[in-house]
């Protein structure tokens, strides 16, 4: 029998990293990203989890979650997840609370892997050695030159698909999509993401126009809250164009409602929002039950580990902001090889460590 390893303490830090240039999508502009890092200690080891959130998330972890999780055996990740989700019951589980739970859950899984000297991929049991990745960026704030340069670069690097933002100007969207298609050539799949900026009729019209450029994936053509609208796009959109949504799923019920509505061809889930590794595995089970493929939204380092164990996983979003931050601040962050992300299984847990000297200038 192994000795118990009760969680001794939970720490949290936050870092705000400026973007390398102004960024925008169909509905939002930003020039910085906040990284919340959680550390969990037990049995002489330290686990690390993270998420992209707000300082309010860090405060919630300190005030509401750390006192509740300390003392739980570090290997009992399911027990800890139940306690964490119960702790935010009266705060409203979606949003900030779910992102706080997610970061803590990731840290506890990393700790468990380190205690057992196993990578998360091996701890969960691998279904794949790696997962296809797609380059994601192409922000609406980019000039046409910068847009083409970024997406064509990913295509040259061998990523099987690239994704660009649309939604600020319908006419400009058509021109920019055509430019990207020419730049990446016919051998790379082209995805577009409106972030819910279109209404139903405009989304349908744009889908037909995008089909002429071979667009294979239309993400959030309408708001992800408009399940009827997503279903309309899925039913009436061009053949061969997948409708994707789900990045704002925070609870299992969110994913179940989307799947029951027949709203998507591809379900998206984000382990930094949907309850961490534990929550992501739940989303994967739901996707598999509905025979719908799953796609991991952003946070590529985190999803590279989980992806190996998820049978229905289609791909991982290699999102420019997060890929850049993770390469800057995490030792062990993987980069795509031959179009796929695969974890280093010789490193236990998530396989990463915070580069504290490099992160210090971004601390808040």
What key attributes describe this structure?
364 residues; alpha/beta; Enolase-like, domain 1; TIM Barrel; 8-stranded parallel barrel; 13 helices; 14 strands
Q: Identify the CATH homologous superfamily of the largest domain.
A: Enolase-like C-terminal domain
The coarse silhouette is globular
- Rg to the nearest angstrom? 20 Å
CATH architecture verdict of the largest domain: Alpha-Beta Barrel
Q: Give the termini separation.
A: 43 Å
Strand order of the largest sheet: 4-5-6-7-8-9-10-11
Structure summary, number of beta strands: 14
- What is the ordering of alpha helices and beta strands? EEEHHHHEHEHEHEHEHEHEHEHEEEH
User: Number of helical segments?
Assistant: 13
Outline of the structure:
The protein is an alpha/beta fold. It has helices at about 55-70, 75-85, 95-115, 120-125, 145-155, 170-185, 200-210, 225-235, 250-260, 275-290, 300-305, 320-330, 355-360, and strands at about 10-25, 30-40, 45-50, 130-135, 160-165, 190-195, 215-220, 240-245, 265-270, 295, 315-320, 330, 340, 355. Helix content is about 40%, strand content about 25%.
What does this protein structure show overall?
The chain has 2 domains: about 120 residues, Enolase-like, domain 1, CATH 3.30.390; about 230 residues, Alpha-Beta Barrel (TIM Barrel), CATH 3.20.20. Helix content is about 40%, strand content about 25%. It has an 8-stranded parallel barrel with strand order 4-5-6-7-8-9-10-11, surrounded by 8 helices. Helix 1 crosses helix 2 and helix 5 runs parallel beside helix 6.
């Amino acid at each position: 029998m192994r000795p118990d390893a009760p969680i001794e303490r939970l720490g949290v830090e936050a870092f705000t990293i400026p973007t390398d240039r102004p960024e925008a999508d169909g509905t939002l502009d930003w020039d910085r990203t906040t990284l919340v890092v959680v550390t969990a200690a037990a049995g002489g080891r330290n686990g690390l989890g993270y998420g992209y959130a707000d300082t309010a998330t860090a405060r919630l972890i300190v005030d509401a979650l750390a006192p509740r999780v300390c003392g739980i055996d570090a290997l009992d990740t399911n027990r800890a997840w139940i306690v964490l989700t119960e702790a935010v019951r009266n705060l409203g589980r979606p949003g900030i609370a779910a992102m706080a739970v997610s970061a803590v859950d990731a840290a506890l899984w990393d700790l468990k892997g380190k205690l057992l000297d196993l990578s998360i991929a091996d701890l969960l049991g691998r279904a794949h050695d790696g997962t296809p990745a797609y380059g994601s960026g192409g922000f609406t704030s980019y000039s046409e030159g910068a847009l083409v340069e970024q997406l064509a670069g990913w295509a040259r690097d061998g990523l099987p698909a690239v994704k660009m933002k649309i939604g600020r100007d319908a006419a400009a969207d058509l021109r920019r999509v055509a430019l990207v298609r020419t730049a990446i050539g016919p051998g790379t799949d082209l995805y577009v993401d409106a972030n819910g900026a279109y209404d139903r009729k405009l989304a349908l019209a744009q889908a037909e126009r995008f089909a002429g450029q071979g667009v294979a994936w239309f993400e959030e053509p309408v708001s992800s809250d408009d399940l009827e609208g997503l279903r309309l796009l899925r039913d009436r959109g061009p053949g061969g164009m997948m409708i994707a949504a789900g990045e704002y799923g925070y609870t299992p019920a969110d994913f179940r409602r989307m799947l029951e509505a027949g709203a998507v061809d591809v379900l998206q889930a984000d382990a930094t929002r949907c309850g961490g590794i534990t929550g992501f595995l739940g989303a994967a089970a739901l996707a598999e039950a509905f025979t719908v493929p799953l796609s991991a939204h952003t946070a590529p380092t985190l999803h590279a580990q989980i992806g190996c164990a998820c049978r229905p996983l289609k791909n991982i979003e290699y999102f420019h902001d997060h890929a850049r931050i993770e390469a800057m601040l995490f030792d062990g962050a993987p980069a795509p090889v031959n179009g796929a992300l695969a974890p280093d299984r010789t490193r236990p847990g998530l396989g990463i460590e915070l580069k504290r000297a490099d992160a210090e200038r971004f601390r808040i």
